[in-house]
Design goal:
- The complex is a heterotrimer of chains A (about 425), B (about 220) and C (about 150).
- Chain B contains ten helices and no strands.
- Chain B has about 220 residues and is mainly α.
- In chain B, helix 4 runs antiparallel to helix 6.
- Chain B starts with a helix and ends with a helix.
- Chain C is mostly helical.
- Helices cover about 70% and strands about 0% of the residues of chain C.
- Classes of the chains: A mainly alpha (about 425), B mainly alpha (about 220), C mainly alpha (about 150).
- Chains A and C meet through helix 11, helix 12, helix 13 and helix 22 of A and helix 4, helix 5, helix 6 and helix 7 of C.
């Protein structure tokens, strides 16, 4: 990223304004209903978190640059400015107080995609040097090392070895012609290695060929979170190049929210051309395997449990039925929380919020929304499909002294997997 | 200027000017939006964009349960306001005659008594809207001069129309003149306030719905 | 009895009752204890092996070790330190020892503790590229054998 400046920030925002954005600002009637959909507002009671307010700097730029009325107002000195102070004031609204969850976009009566606009405005904040430190660091590491958390290939290889010792199953690396390219998020590699084991066992049972890519094992896209399309493009390109080189049919996005959004929806637009492969979320793939009879489950959990819909996967990704199909096979007491599915409430830590230490307090406050949902249900277990959600939820539950274990859905499915395919013998190496 | 001269002017040149500014202004606002264009989406679609766009224009007319539960009065009042306003505007005999003179066709009118009631309800609804705007901390926080101006210029025609019909305050001729002038004020200012939403709402819903339809996600 | 591979290891563990699993699990954790610098881990092991412990104290121990493991995890997007991450897995291993009955599902607390303990050792391998994984599984077979023989 070149030296930031307010001017660059303004230009970056200007470049993000298109016909949809203009129609959104023209249609907004200040009804304030978007606030009622936003957990940062509902739990803090502070109107500054009203979603449409978060993009006020963009509105000012739109009005002054792209409307006659706005130009006239500016000429008369009546237009509101966007300056250093504006960026400073709005930084915590655009990053700390928004997880890009998209609920606001769904409730706006005139149809405004407000969270889409917040994603766009981040481009300007990053260019103006007003992105949170945590995200800047993560992006830098992602670009230079290949993972926002500094995970390097040897670390992944060590885990693969651990996996092989425990299960006898291997994780192919750079296997040309494999059907599936599996991506992993650093969060999973570091905190939930059970995910990789689950994938290995499921793929083996399903009889599918798969691989990870040594040059592109990372799914997390910090560029999307910080709002720098150049970085987002670079990170996606690594995956696309690897997928093309290995000639895979489908790229699988792991249990990580924004990774899916980045590779499934943003990727082709970032690189400027359509993909030569499909992109699916792991839950979509698992659901396919199950409905095609490639994998079977036996037994299940009888504890009362519920499912937390990760925003990028459910509301923005359209993967809503699949986790439920899967859970219904391995859980006998699955209850839905209120507002389950597309309208579910965010964990509070998505969109870069959990990577931003400054946002810790507001994130915990926002968690109260999820807390209310859970308290109303009284469950013994919470299932979800996003490594970030998992930790944010765990932290929130711990803060509120609620003892509800959280389990990843892929991992849970693997637990009840019928495994009748022989595995290579676990040899003890000399 | 006497009431008669005012009325003549309002019916004649006044209306012509207002109409030109209204149509020209709205077209300008629409072109300003469309001229920005939209990059095509290269990601593999799951569904149909146009289908999503059209559906969303319709489905956003109804609120989601979780939001309705939080703000029932504000949402219901919004419906009352819009339905009342459009009823008076489009289903009152003399208004239909005016439309007919432009469009070449008309449609059945509602009995004047019903229109009178509808106007009264609309005026009350506008009053409620203002009270809600001032009393809700989020809405108050968001509100700008534009919101209050838009409110006033929407209220005036309904109010003066009601007063004219019921022979209140001033002579019928004068009230009618004021009614027409207030309509002309609305027409002239609308393209430069948030009242542009009367057209842009469909565009906003279309754009979001299009993307959602293409992605196969909820909208 | 000699245990030389994982299927024998798992079988032997599955044959143990809850209290025994907690005891053995604690031994697995102790074997990697030096990889964590959080005193709460050792404290929780005491709770895990105390057969006289009351419900309230057990509850507190569980919350404490859960907090320890959360504190130790790598924050999303932060510069991940594998040596710190080892501490996270040690805490998770201790957590497994304290899990309420039935929560471990088919895996059993001792097996879970063993796996997390091995993962802690693997973190070192991730940090230093040396292969210490085998070392831990061998050590665990030894620990279990000694425990069963005693």
């Amino acid at each position: 990223m070149s030296a930031p400046s307010v001017e660059k920030g303004i230009q970056a925002i200007k470049a993000q304004i298109d016909a949809p954005v203009a129609s959104f600002f023209s249609a907004c009637v200040h009804c304030g209903l978007c606030a009622e959909a936003c957990l940062f507002y509902t739990e803090t009671g502070d109107p500054k978190y009203t979603p449409i307010n978060k993009v006020e700097p963009m509105r000012r730029i739109w009005e002054r640059e792209y409307t006659l009325l706005g130009k006239a107002k500016a000429a008369l000195g009546l237009a509101k400015d966007v300056d250093e102070g504006t960026f400073t004031e709005w930084e915590t609204l655009v990053y700390d107080g928004c997880s890009l969850c998209g609920r606001c976009s769904l409730v706006c009566p005139v149809g405004n995609d407000i969270s889409g606009m917040i994603r766009k405005i981040r481009e300007g904040f990053a260019a103006a040097g007003h992105a949170p430190e945590g995200l800047i660091g993560a992006s830098k590491r992602a670009v230079e090392i290949g993972s926002p958390m500094g995970v390097k290939l040897p670390a992944v290889q060590a885990q693969i070895k651990h996996l092989r010792k425990n299960t006898g199953l291997d994780v192919p690396i750079d296997a040309k012609g494999a059907e599936y390219l599996v991506l992993l998020s650093s969060m999973e590699i570091m905190n939930f290695p059970e995910y990789l084991e689950a994938i290995a066992r499921i793929m083996h049972q399903a009889g599918k060929t798969w691989t990870i890519a040594s040059k592109a094992f990372e799914a997390t896209n910090s560029g999307v979170q910080i709002g720098v399309s150049d970085i987002a493009k670079l990170l996606v390109s690594r995956v696309v190049d690897a997928a093309d080189e290995l000639g895979v049919k489908t790229v699988i996005s792991p249990e990580c929210g924004h990774a899916f959004t980045a590779i499934r929806w943003d990727g082709a637009n970032l690189i400027g051309r359509p993909y030569g492969f499909e992109v699916k979320h792991i839950l979509e793939v698992l659901d396919e395997f199950v409905s095609q009879g490639l994998i079977k489950t036996e037994g299940g959990e009888d504890a009362k449990l519920t499912y937390h819909d990760p925003c990028q996967i459910a509301r923005k990704g359209g993967v809503v039925k699949q986790p439920r199909n899967l859970l219904n096979r391995i859980a006998t007491n699955f209850v839905e929380m209120e507002d389950a599915g597309e309208m579910n409430w965010c964990c509070g830590g998505g969109g870069g919020v959990s990577a931003n230490e400054r946002a810790d307090e507001v994130k915990l406050t926002a968690f109260n929304r999820k807390k209310s949902q859970l308290q109303a249900l009284g469950v013994d277990t919470l299932v979800t499909a996003c490594a970030n959600c998992r930790l944010v939820l765990e932290e929130g539950l711990e803060e509120n002294e609620m003892d509800i274990p959280i389990v990843g859905l892929t991992e849970m499915l693997a637990e009840y997997l019928v495994e009748d395919k022989p595995r290579p013998e676990v040899k003890e190496e000399a | 200027m006497g009431a008669n001269e005012l009325l003549s002017w309002a019916r004649g040149p006044g209306f012509d000017i207002a109409l030109i500014i209204f149509v020209g202004g709205m077209l300008l606002r629409l072109l300003e939006i469309l001229a920005l264009g939209k990059k095509p989406d290269l990601s593999p679609p799951r569904g149909s964009g146009p289908k999503g766009g059209v559906e969303t224009i319709l489905t956003r007319m109804l609120p989601r349960k979780s939001i309705f539960d939080k703000e029932p009065l504000r949402i219901i009042n919004g419906y009352v306001l819009h339905i009342g306003f459009f009823t008076v505007l489009f289903l009152y005999g003399p208004h239909i005659v005016l439309f007919e003179s432009f469009l070449g066709f008309g449609w059945p009118a509602l009995p004047s008594g019903m229109i009178d009631a509808a106007s009264a309800i609309t005026i009350v609804s506008l009053g409620v809207a203002l009270a809600l705007r001032l009393n809700n901390k989020v809405v108050r926080f968001l509100s700008t001069k534009d919101d209050y101006i838009a409110w006033a210029i929407t209220l005036l025609p309904v109010l003066t129309g009601y007063m004219a019909y019921n022979h209140l305050v001033a002579s019928y001729t004068m009230m009618l003149a004021l009614h027409l002038l207030s309509v002309e004020l609305l027409m002239v200012l609308a393209p430069f306030t948030k009242l542009t939403h009367m057209f842009s709402f469909a565009m906003a819903r279309w754009y979001q719905g299009y993307q959602a339809g293409r992605r196969g996600v909820e909208s | 009895m000699s245990i030389s591979n994982d299927s024998e290891f798992r079988k032997a563990l599955d044959g143990l009752g809850l209290e025994q699993q907690r005891e053995v699990g604690s031994l697995f954790v102790k074997s990697v204890l030096e990889l964590s610098d959080d005193p709460r881990v050792a404290q929780s092991l005491q709770a895990a092996t105390d057969s006289e412990i009351g419900d309230a104290a057990l509850s507190l121990a569980r919350r404490t070790i859960k907090a320890a493991s959360l504190d130790a995890h790598a924050r999303c997007g932060a510069d991940g330190e594998w040596t710190d991450q080892a501490g996270y897995f040690v805490a998770r291993a201790a957590e497994a020892c304290l899990e309420p009955e039935g929560r471990s599902g088919s895996k059993g607390p001792a097996w879970k503790a063993a796996m997390s303990a091995r993962m802690a050792r693997t973190c070192l391998a991730a940090a230093s590229e040396e292969d210490s994984h085998d070392v831990e599984s061998q050590a665990q077979y030894q620990i279990l054998t000694s425990y069963l023989d005693a």
